[in-house]
Inverse folding.
């Protein structure tokens, strides 16, 4: 991907990607006026209501009635009309449901794909919002339609009001307040308290969310990958992180206790058994290959609402004109590290090469480039075309 990281960007209010990442990312909020100049909603607002009624779409409705908060999870059958105040409809993974939001999210790819989560779009009537709260996410909140007043605070107090269906801060003390109009955007780092209240009956906020992984999950995943490697290499079965083999995960030998003396307390676990278990563990290397295996497979797992459409027609890259574009489907996720490539939760059989790297970074390649593939890569590209992971236009 060719991008000048030192070039001022309208998206970042004139900052370069380099400056934004250095001074704001994970550090402090940034208000960006007209990040998307003259912004117009790419879909009719009605479409959000329709999507929220579908089974395969994750949505929720938050309503406020004085001090009372009500939460309904989709599919939603009844959504209040726009002239009813104080409600907000939130639809997740809009980047997978509407190409236009996927395209908008591409603007943020100076941030690693591994950190990207989804685009959430909310539609709120006047007074609507989800209340003062904080997220563990980095988020860019773009005003899509109407206007909304945002109040934010970098307060330390994160106490929540108990027994509510939504996470609402007990003592929200706003430090800044801004009114966002279409095209304006607010970046918030994780833990920054915020409250956005719709000022109009057709208020739309488009949130580009970047998940922050918990270290507990990361450590657990590396251990899981180690378990899968030991299991497959010791003939104890396969797991999602077992193929292909990573050297050095075979634990040989059997427990032995030729020195065992007779016991008068037979229920007690022998100390040598404890010692030999721990000794066996010393064979396991928690190395970068294991971490990459887990992260690559886990982070490329398709979203739970993603369904790929098999391609019925026989597509042959050799028959395509050189300028035909092969692109990853919007639901496909692809990452790589060193020689290993990951796509949609799997390790790719071929090692990283120029074609796979370009496909992952640019999310597209020309048929001309694809036609320079080695046999294995060529076969993979065809398989992905058949499975609908890759599409051509
Ligand atoms: C929204 O209301 O669209 C944004 C929700 C949030 O503050 O996380
Ligand atoms: Co939030």
């Amino acid at each position: 991907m060719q991008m000048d990281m030192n070039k001022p960007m309208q998206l970042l209010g004139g900052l370069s990607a380099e400056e934004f990442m250095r001074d704001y990312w994970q550090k402090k909020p940034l208000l960006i006026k007209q990040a998307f100049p003259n912004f117009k909603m790419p879909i009719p607002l009605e479409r959000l209501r329709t999507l929220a009624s579908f089974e395969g779409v994750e949505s929720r409705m938050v309503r406020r009635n004085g001090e009372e908060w009500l939460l309904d999870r989709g599919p939603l059958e009844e959504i209040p009309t726009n002239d009813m105040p104080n409600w907000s409809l939130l639809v997740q993974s809009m980047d997978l449901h509407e190409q236009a939001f996927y395209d908008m999210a591409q603007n943020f790819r100076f941030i690693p794909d591994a950190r990207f989560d989804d685009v959430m779009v909310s539609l709120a009537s006047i007074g609507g919002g989800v209340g003062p709260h904080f997220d563990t996410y980095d988020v860019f909140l773009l005003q899509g339609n109407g206007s909304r007043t945002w109040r934010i605070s970098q307060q330390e107090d994160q106490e929540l009001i108990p027994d509510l269906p939504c996470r609402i801060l007990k003592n929200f003390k706003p430090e800044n307040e801004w009114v966002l109009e279409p095209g304006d955007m607010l970046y918030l780092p994780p833990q920054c308290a915020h409250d956005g209240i719709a000022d109009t009956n057709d208020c739309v906020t488009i949130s580009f969310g970047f998940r922050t992984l918990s270290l507990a999950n990361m450590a657990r995943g590396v251990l899981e990958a180690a378990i899968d490697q030991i299991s497959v290499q010791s003939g104890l079965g396969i797991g999602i992180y077992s193929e292909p083999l990573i050297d050095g995960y075979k634990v040989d030998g059997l427990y032995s206790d030729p020195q065992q003396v007779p016991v008068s307390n037979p229920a007690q676990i022998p100390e040598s058994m404890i010692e030999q278990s721990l000794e066996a563990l010393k064979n396991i290397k928690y190395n970068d290959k294991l971490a990459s295996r887990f992260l690559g497979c886990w982070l490329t797992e398709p979203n739970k609402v993603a369904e790929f459409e098999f391609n019925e027609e026989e597509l042959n890259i050799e028959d395509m004109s050189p300028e035909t574009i092969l692109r990853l489907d919007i639901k496909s996720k692809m990452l790589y590290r060193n020689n290993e490539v990951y796509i949609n939760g799997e390790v790719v059989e071929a090692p990283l090469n120029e074609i796979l790297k370009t496909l992952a970074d640019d999310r597209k390649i020309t048929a001309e480039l694809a036609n320079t593939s080695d046999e294995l890569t060529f076969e993979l590209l065809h398989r992905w075309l058949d499975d609908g992971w890759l599409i051509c236009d």
